Structure formats: C-alpha cells, structure tokens
Amino acid sequence: MNHEELLYAETHEWLHLAEQNGDKIATIGISAFAVEALTDLVYIQLPEIGQKVAVGESFGEVESVKAVSDLYSPIEGEVIEVNESLADDLEALSTDPYGKGWVAKIKLTDEGGLADLLDADSYQKQCSDG
Amino acid sequence: MTSTLAQTPLHSWHVSHVGRMVDFAGWSMPVQYSSIVAEHRATRCHVGVFDISHMGRIRIGGPDRVEFLDHLSTRQMTDLAEGCIRYSLLCNESGGILDDVLVYRFADQLDAHWLLVVNAANRHKIASWLEQQSHAFEVELEDLTATTAMIAVQGPLSVQVIPRVIAAPPDHSFTKLKYYQSQRGTFHNTRVLVSRTGYTGEDGFELILPTEIALELWNAILECDPDYGAQAAGLGARDTLRLEAGMPLYGHELTEEINPLQANLRFAVNLQGRDFIGRESLQMIQYELGQPRRVGLQLEGRRVPREGYRVLSDRAEVGHVTSGTFSPTLEVPLAMAYVTPQVATEGSKLHVDIRGKNVAARVVKLPFYRRK
Fold first, then answer.
1. Cβ atoms within 10 A of the Cβ of A2, count?
2. With an 8 Å Cβ cutoff, is B300 touching chain A?
3. Phi, then psi, of B242 in degrees rounded to 5
4. What is the rounded distance in angstroms from the CA atom of residue A87 to the CA atom of residue B184?
5. Cα-Cα-Cα-Cα dihedral sign, residues B206, B244, B80, B59
6. What sign results for the dihedral spanned by CA atoms B68, B69, B70, B72?
7. CA–CA gap between residue B155 and residue B17 (Å, rounded)
8. How many angstroms away from the CA of B228 is the closest CA of chain A?
C-alpha cells in the first residue's frame, strides 16, 4: 500500500478504506514512524473477529522491550479479519508496515471517525513537530 | 527543556549518534542508539560501551576514612585490601536501604583515600548523609562527579580491548586484574582508574577518568579494533543486562522501605563483631518472618511484566513486580518481584496480572543468566 494515500490517526494508526459488497472496509496498521519509535517489538495482542470497536477505543496492544502501547481504533465498526501471521512474524510490522504488517480489517458501522483522520502530509508534519 | 538536565562529557557524541536522550535522575542520557536488543546482544557476545558518567563519585580522605566508611556500611570495610573494591549498602537507622554502592580502596601511599560510587538518583542524598554523619570523624569529602567521567566496557572481548587502549603500569597487566580490583593506567599521559567491575553479568571493566579526555578515550575504545565489535550501548541495554544478571536497581528493587535481608543481599551484611548504622534494626529484622522477599519470576508467553504489576497466587495478591523485561538472551519474559515468603520458594507457581489478564509465572533462581 502506498503510504502517501493512507489516512492516519494522531495515535499513529494508519487506515486504508475500500468498498466491498456495499460495505466500507478499513484496513488498519501501525505507522512506520510509530514502529520505529517503539523498536524491539516482542508481542502483539490482536483484536478478536466479531469484536465491536468505537472511535478511540483500544483494540489491541503492542509490547516492546521498553514499554507496552495500546492500539486505538480510528473508527467505529466490527473486526472482520485480523493478521494472524504477525504472531510469528512481528518483523513484518517494521519491514513492511503498510503491507504485510497490517493488523486488522474493520467493517465500518459509522463514518464519524473518518473526518478526524489526517492525510499523509499532515501526519508527517505531526511526527516531525513531535 | 533539556537545558535543566545535567550533561555528561559525552553528551554531544550521544546526540550526534542519534542516541534517544531521556531524563534519568536529572541527567540527559541515551536510552538506546539503535535497538536495546542489538546493544544488549553486542554486550553479551562482543563488547558494549556505556557512558555511566551520571553515577556519583565521592572521594573520602582524612585519617578516619576507614572507620567512617565502616560505620556507614552494612559490610565490613576495615579488612578491605588496597586496590580492592567491595559492593555494600548504606542503611538508615531502621535498616532501610539508602543506596547500594561500590567502595574502592586505593594503594596510593602519597594520597591515601577511598572512593564511593553511588547511584545517580541518590548522589545528593548520599553526599548530605555522609556530611551529616561525618562530625565525629576526621574525614574529607569531595564530590568528583562533575570533574570526572565514567565509562563501562563490558563483554567477553572487553579484556582484549582495554590493554590496547590503556597502558598499564610497568609489571602490571589489565588482563590479570582480578574481579573487584582496580589499577591505575594511563591514556595519552593522563591517569585513568581501571576496575574489573560491571553491572551486566559479563566480564568487564569500568573506567574513571578526567572529563577532558572522555571523548578521546571513548572513541579510542570504539575504534580500537573492528574485530571486537565494540558498540555503544545505552541505559536500556544496561537495564536488560543487569536484570538478566539478577542485579537489583535502586528505586526499583531497593528503596528506603526495603531492608537488605528481604532484598536477598544477606551476603552484603556483616552483623557480627562490628557496629554500623542500621545494625541493631537488621539484627532484629533477621528473625522477623513474613516480610516480602525479592524473587525472580519467569513468565509464560511473550507478554512483558512491568513495574507495579500485581503478583497473584490463587487469585490472591501476594506481591508486585519491581522490574521486568523480555529477556533478549533467554527470549522469555522475566521479572523481579517482592512476594510474601510463603510463595517465595523456587518452583512456586504464581500469576502476574498483565493489564487485566492473569499470565502464568513461576519463581526461578536468580540470576536468570550466568556467563559461562
């Protein structure tokens, strides 16, 4: 996925929106900036399929040697798919954060959260101002 | 914001080598350069080089220096031989730990003195404590922290590196320096104190030197020979290394509310035939059952136990984690914790509450890692 065309949450999750059978499906992952900041990842707690998530709600956790961080859902919806392969290949989060490193797919039940997301330029600016 | 933090003589090197600088006990220190795991492994397999200039260095001179230190120290100091170093604790009257320290006695006959290396976070507290306790003694105290730097060179190949960079006095060799002994050497005609000590569980050396030569010596160590793979390492790796080695860290395993006996530091307490501050309390405490004890925990899975997490036995809280990490060497989650004595035995099956989930843990022997 081209990271220039993705949307970003201030909490460093990226989101790619697609239509599927009339539903809006968001693929969500962790930005390269956030993965780089965390370093030494050791574990990811994925959400469960069928789990309902609200905007700003924790839907997973990543552990690094140094700290644990929540993954926050940028949107409201239902988890329809999770990237099980990450359990054995955490490296994908850093080597291919916008591809093989995706975390979950969520079917939107409300589009409210989308308006608050940043485009790539604004997100980049937030990171460099950090 | 960083202007209020103290800087070591190597600060500009850390910044220019993309060290992630954090506030550690009022010092701007690198937590890591590349990755904690990479720096940790470099230290276990080759050489890790750490700026530890933030550690407090207090010189103790004067005719009563030996009696003074013996009076403050849980461990006997009167029999410490010249050139030797001893790990000890300073306690308050109730036996609570004020700090854990290294005490150096020097062979220098012209300028006889001892040196106390204390934790950065406790430096001012200990300086005042020494001052306060010194009235009945003829001693001279001087804080050398600002005028000296301290560098730790740790790892199996550090014994190859040190002699290449620092010249030993005639008839001496740093390769023959014994564990917990020190020796003066020179680097570009400047005196450097070399000791075979460390906080990583590996063979290694710690150097104390004037600030003026810090950067030059630091670079000389890193560039000494690429075959040895000497790599700068930050406080993050220092923490994971000491944790694997089962070494307590002040502010976590050790506080003024913790006494040496429950911290499993009985070896650093000499109660017989001498008096020191805290002795009476420790004498009593040694017969008190029921105090929480420091233990090592190994957890199942890959989730990381962290400071403050609750330790449970059959759903009842029996203690808490004081330090935890995902061990880069053993590749399992490890923690040190204080738990009630009933469950503080090896093999005891417990749980750690990791953010609302109970993860199976068992009490294991410390240290978690011992070098071959």
1. 8
2. no
3. -70, -35
4. 51
5. positive
6. positive
7. 21
8. 24
User: Per the structure block, which two tokens stand in for B231?
Assistant: 């790599």
The residue in chain B having the minimum alpha-carbon distance to the alpha carbon of residue A60 is B355
- Please tell me the distance from the alpha carbon of residue B355 to that of residue A71, in angstroms, as a whole number: 14
CATH architecture of A3-118: Beta Barrel (2.40)
Domain boundaries, chain A: 3-118
Calpha distance B239→B199 (Å, rounded): 9
Distance of CA B353 to the CA centre of its chain: 28
Q: Is the pTM of this model over 0.90?
A: yes
> Residue-wise pLDDT tens for chain A (130 aa)?
788 889 999 999 999 999 999 999 999 999 999 999 999 999 999 999 999 999 999 999 999 999 999 999 999 999 999 999 999 999 999 999 999 999 999 999 999 889 999 999 999 999 988 6
B-chain CB neighbours of A35 within 8 Å are none
Rounded to two decimals, the ipTM of the complex is 0.90
Paired with B50 in beta bridges are: B152
- The CA distances from residue B133 to B73, B75, B77, in Å, are 12, 17, 16
Instruction: Determine the Cα–Cα distance for residues B130 and B152; give it in Å rounded to an integer.
Output: 26
Q: How far apart, in whole angstroms, are the C-alpha atoms of residue B355 and residue B107?
A: 53
